[in-house]
Specification:
alpha/beta, 201 residues, six-stranded mixed beta sheet
């Protein structure tokens, strides 16, 4: 997929004026990645995270630039509270880490996910990552517009790759000990994505 493909696919996926979705691209998007640290691809799915941050500008900056312990980009896109998608990286990004190879095989086969009980497989290579602005404390609300944006972005990428909703997972389903995204279930999100995929783009 091209550098602008995430935004292009999302814009092309809109079915009407009430389903529009804003996107913004960070500077140097085409070359901002961690490709020098390992391979990128083949890509098999989309991984959803929460940020444990507050404030969109701060969240986008952290996800683009990273921090001393973990250089950016920390994902491919940030989904803000207002539903706007900020593209911050293209290629390999520091978001998934090591996870369960059986989960990866289930994603590729689009089967029901097994429990994640080991961390042996490079997820940064195989997943698009979206960090969603939320404190991750189970109390910070998830606005409907934000949840809709997560579903729209995921569905757009699934359409582009010929995937079903089963190719979208949460970080907590990939790596033991992770809890994100917290505040909604991935089963409910996959149902949203499935419904969107059944709609005519």
């Amino acid at each position: 997929m091209s550098v602008g493909s995430v935004g292009d696919e999302v814009r092309a996926d809109q079915a009407g004026p009430q389903q529009s979705l804003g996107t913004a691209a960070a500077r140097n998007l085409a070359t901002h990645n961690r490709n020098h640290k390992g391979p990128w691809g083949p890509v098999h799915g989309v991984m959803i995270h929460h940020t444990v941050t507050k404030g969109t500008a701060n969240t986008v900056r952290i996800c683009r630039d990273g921090h001393a312990a973990l250089p950016g980009p920390l994902c491919h896109g940030v989904i803000a509270k207002d539903g706007r998608v900020h593209l911050v990286g293209y290629g390999r990004a520091n978001h998934a880490g090591l996870g369960d190879d059986e989960v990866l095989r289930a994603v590729i086969a689009e089967h029901r996910l097994p429990p994640d009980d080991e961390a042996t497989t490079d997820g940064n290579r195989h997943f698009y990552g979206f960090e969603c602005e939320n404190l991750g404390d189970g109390k910070d609300p998830w606005p409907k517009v934000q949840l809709d944006a997560i579903a729209k972005v995921s569905a757009a990428l699934c359409r582009a790759h010929g995937w079903t909703h089963r190719s979208v997972i949460g970080h907590l389903e990939w790596q033991p000990g992770k809890v994100d995204p917290r505040g909604f279930t991935m089963a409910s999100m996959r149902e949203r994505i499935s419904e969107r995929l059944r709609e005519r783009p």
